[in-house]
Amino acid sequence: MASSADPWMREYNEASKLADNITGMISERSSFGARSEARHHSSAIRRKITMLGTRLGSLQSLLKKLPAKQPITKKEMNKRRDMLANLRTNVTQTAEALNMSSFRNRDNLLGPGTKRADDMARISALEADDGR
Predict the structure, then answer these.
(1) Total domain count for the chain?
(2) Which of 1, 4, 10, 110: CA 20 to 30 A from 32?
């Protein structure tokens, strides 16, 4: 197993903690009564998901450079690839659950059954909430 001085493992552990934090925040989301509080909380979750996505990119980059920087077995390299893939899947699923456009395209966000009138009704409701 890799030592605690291993930069990739340190970064992975931090990313994993952030993912756990996001999961906890999502669990808390239903406890917010006021709409503005819920929106702020959802925004914080989205920011953290974006940060986690950046960390995953960094981990991917570090993983590509790893064999040149330190001796690592093929088995350990495959294990790390799997760990990274699992964490990336977790982030993608979380982002999909929150309808984050940076992880999905517009059609997937709206869903196949959404009609143009539904979109307009949603926009009108959002404008009404903002006092427009």
Answers:
(1) 2
(2) 110
